[in-house]
């Protein structure tokens, strides 16, 4: 008989829709309010982390990865870490991403801690959740979805739902797609989000990768090995919609960027 993993201690096993709807209203009013993203995830991703952890330890390499419990945000934020990677690798592309956006792994981790005491819980499930959080920007690099625009974030959120489950991802992706119908006066943005979901379904399970090894892999070879498809509708939407409609909160983003050291994240 297969063993069933217990739930995360202290959780009810029920989704908190009231919190999720309150948070999505704030997020849609200000797509740069990343704190709301994590509130939605905690409210709706019931059982997803447990399932993801169980899936990880059932893989050939996952037992060792789970046993080591490397905190990726701490590793990625070490001085000089990003400088070690050869040109053409995922790590080099990640380095370029950090330099061009000003983002950081520990910056996103700090945002995730706002309003909760459980983010750094010493528990395997919580560690797996942090692992998904800390690889978010690497998924941006691998998929080609931009991190500093509403379109790229929404498409990656849909990709992430297909990859790791959790209704929080789907909730944000659907809300962003629905908002885009009004803002852009067309369906191209929403179609790009749906493409992100389909591509997430088609790709190999990225959460099972050993990221400290993966970062040294040539990016095009890794995309081919992992089945990460070219986001053609997304690229078309970028071209047709232009920067303003692809990132429909750009005015607020530029204003906020002038007064904060950590650029906004996960726009919806």
Tell me what the structure shows.
This protein has helices at residues 17-29, 34-44, 48-57, 62-68, 72-76, 90-101, 105-112, 124-134, 136-143, 150-164, 167-184, 188-202, 211-214, 219-226, 232-246, 250-257. The chain is mostly helical and 268 residues long. The protein is globular and about 50 Å long. The termini are far apart. Mean pLDDT is 90; it is low at 250-264.
Short summary of the structure?
The protein has 16 helices and no strands. By secondary structure, it is mainly alpha-helical. The longest helix has 18 residues.
Helix-strand blueprint:
Blueprint: H1 17-29, H2 34-44, H3 48-57, H4 62-68, H5 72-76, H6 90-101, H7 105-112, H8 124-134, H9 136-143, H10 150-164, H11 167-184, H12 188-202, H13 211-214, H14 219-226, H15 232-246, H16 250-257
């Amino acid at each position: 008989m297969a063993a069933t993993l217990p739930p995360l201690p202290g959780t009810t096993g029920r989704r908190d829709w009231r919190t999720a709807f309150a948070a999505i209203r704030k997020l849609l009013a200000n797509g740069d309010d990343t704190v709301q993203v994590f509130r939605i995830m905690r409210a709706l991703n019931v059982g997803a982390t447990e399932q993801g952890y169980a899936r990880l330890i059932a893989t050939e390499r996952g037992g060792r990865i789970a046993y080591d419990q490397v905190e990726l945000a701490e590793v990625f934020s070490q001085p000089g870490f990003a400088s070690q990677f050869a040109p053409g690798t995922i790590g080099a592309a990640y380095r370029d991403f950090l330099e061009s956006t000003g983002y950081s792994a520990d910056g996103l981790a700090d945002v995730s801690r706002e309003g909760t005491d459980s983010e750094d819980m010493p528990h395997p499930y919580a560690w797996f959740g942090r692992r998904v959080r800390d690889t978010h920007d690497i998924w941006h690099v691998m998929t080609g979805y931009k991190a500093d625009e509403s379109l790229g974030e929404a498409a990656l959120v849909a990709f992430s739902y297909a990859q790791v489950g959790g209704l929080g991802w789907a909730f944000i992706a659907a809300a962003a797609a629905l908002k885009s119908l009004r803002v852009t006066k067309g369906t191209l943005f929403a179609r790009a989000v749906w493409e992100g979901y389909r591509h997430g379904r088609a790709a190999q399970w990225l959460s099972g990768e050993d990221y400290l090894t993966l970062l040294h892999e040539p990016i095009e070879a890794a995309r081919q090995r992992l089945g990460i498809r070219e986001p053609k509708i997304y690229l078309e939407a970028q071209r047709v919609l232009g920067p303003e409609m692809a990132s429909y909160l750009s005015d607020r983003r530029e204003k906020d960027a002038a007064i904060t050291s950590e650029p906004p994240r996960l726009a919806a």
